[in-house]
Design brief:
2 helices, alpha/beta
C-alpha cells in the first residue's frame, strides 16, 4: 500500500512536489480546486515521481 500525503493548500502541493517529497507516494488535496487545475497539478505530481492524486469531491469548483 502506498503512503498518501494530505495537502491543505495549493502552495503546499507545489512545495511537496518541488522538494521531492512525493516520489512513489499518492497525494490527496483538501483545498478547493477548479476542474481545469486538476490536470496541471496531476502532471506536476507525475513529473516529480508521484503516483496518484485525489481530491475531496465537495471541493471541486
Amino acid at each position: 500500500m502506498r503512503q498518501t500525503i494530505i495537502v491543505s493548500t495549493y502552495q503546499s502541493f507545489i512545495d511537496m512536489c518541488m522538494n521531492g517529497l512525493v516520489d512513489g507516494k499518492n497525494i490527496h488535496c483538501t483545498f478547493p480546486l477548479m476542474v481545469c487545475e486538476i490536470e496541471g497539478l496531476n502532471t506536476l505530481l507525475i513529473k516529480h515521481g508521484g503516483h496518484e492524486m485525489t481530491v475531496t469531491k465537495s471541493l471541486i469548483i
